[in-house]
Amino acid sequence: MNLFLEVNNYCELRCRFCVADNAHAYAATNMPTSLVKELIERNKQEKLKCAFITGGEPLLHPDIFEILSLLRLDNYYIYITTNGLHLKEPEFLVKLLSIGINRLAIPIYGSTASIHDAMTGVEGSYESLITALDNLFYVKDKYNLQTKVELRLLMSKFTIKENIRIVDFIAERYSSVDYINLNGLQLSSRTTNYENMIETSLTESREYLQETVKRISSYGIKGTVTGIPICILGEEFSQFYHQRRNSLQLFPHFSVGPYMVSTEEINYRTKTSKEKGDVCKRCKYYHECEGLQKRYVDRYGFSDLVPIE
Q: Are the beta carbons of 253 and 264 closer than 8 angstroms?
């Protein structure tokens, strides 16, 4: 059984595109540790268990080490999505890794401070991230840790060209990276607010997305793709989707938000909310592809898609 735990709803960054920015609806909130304990007990008899930990910034949760330790003791596969900034503190990093985290996913938006910081909205965030990544890979390589590290690239108007340089940077500086993930943009009120900087269609991005995955492949790094239909990249890159599918399956899962206090409020999700159109039905990858986010369909329709037959 899978748990998708949004353990809090706040972060020290102000990313221009963040769909988790719901401060307008909820005050800064942390998921109760008691609820996590209840969920663990409820799924005690399950054999295969995975916990996807996100936020906000999950490592800001005051009880994050207790939550992770409880999950680890009950044999959950632990996958954390984090901005990574707290890993610049060696003591925090060692304490986190000692729990036995299975996978850490960390985004990087630029190969230079000016680009990355413009995306996060916080000056100095790039410098902090690089210190954190240097620490992480030093410890991982020195002690041959089994924790997998996934570095994430974002499809946005501001970063689609920069992603190619980021891949070069990662390959040169962090050659032991386990995965590079190319992540499609989720449209939101924030991406609309920064439309000239963030929003881009798949057609506009296609050339740069293809070049990015080619560059990942050229270094022999395992690449994965999320939120970008296969037809946009082309069938020759279908292994990027296979690797994602074969490594981790999110659905079905219990979806738990930080404002929930009882198991009665929890949503059980069996499938993605992404949409497919008539054009998708002609594609040989219809059952493997996620489709498109509803907001994207509302804005651009299915005109970007050309089925692979």
A: no
- DSSP conformation class of 26: S
The token pair at 261 is: 């206090």
Question: Would the pLDDT of 76 be above 80?
Answer: yes
pLDDT tens-digit readout, 89-102? 999 999 999 999 99
Q: Which pLDDT score, from 0 to 100, does residue 108 have? A: 98
Phi, psi for residue 15 in degrees, rounded to 5: -55, 140
| Integer Cα distance of 131 and 170 in angstroms | 14
* The model's pTM: 0.95
Residue 251, pLDDT score: 83
Q: How far apart are CA 54 and CA 11, in angstroms?
A: 11
pLDDT number for residue 186: 86
Residues whose CB falls within 8 Å of the CB of residue 59, separated by 6 or more in sequence, listed in order = 80, 82, 86, 92, 96
